[in-house]
Amino acid sequence: MADEKFVLVSMDDERLKSLSDVLGNRTCKKIIEHLAENKEASEKDLSDSLGIAMNTIEYNMKKLLYSGFVQKRKNFFWSKKGKKIVMYELTNKSIIISPQNMAKDKVKSLFPAVITLAAGTFALWVYQRLSANETQNYIQGTPGVATNFALTAAPKAAGGSVGIVQSSPLWLWFLVGGLLVLGISSILNWRRL
Q1: Which of the residues 27, 91, 104, 145 has the least number of beta carbons within 10 Å of its own beta carbon?
Q2: Is there a domain that residue 108 lies in?
Q3: pTM
Q4: What percent of the chain stands above pLDDT 90?
């Protein structure tokens, strides 16, 4: 899995507080500057170079790790006492702060229009079905009405009978037109949704 090149943080995200703490903290800024110049360092290296107590470095390093500014390197060393020494580096990520999860909200704003379109399409489909059935029942029950309606006569040899000419379904045109209008209007108004 490829690493993402950015961290997207919305205004509701709990990491935003951590980001603001890090950006306002002098020690964190010093650590970031040191890692920018030296590419990698351990907590001991940072403590010695910056003249800051180890426990302060450790505390601020946790904040930097959580906020996404710093990451642990895959390589590490062992001290003379057998303790694992972790190396840290800056992440190569951009941090994007977004006012909200806008794409999700924009899609949600289209939901009522899609429901209305689906309900209208269904109502038109039901109307056409009922209207076709009533027309066919009327024609079958009334002799001599063939001149008022478009009828087709299938050859008797083929086992056909007289029936109504099927036109293209109006509900399908309504659905396609509605989806087209919805798509075009959402593209044109995407920023305002």
Answers
A1: 104
A2: yes
A3: 0.47
A4: 11
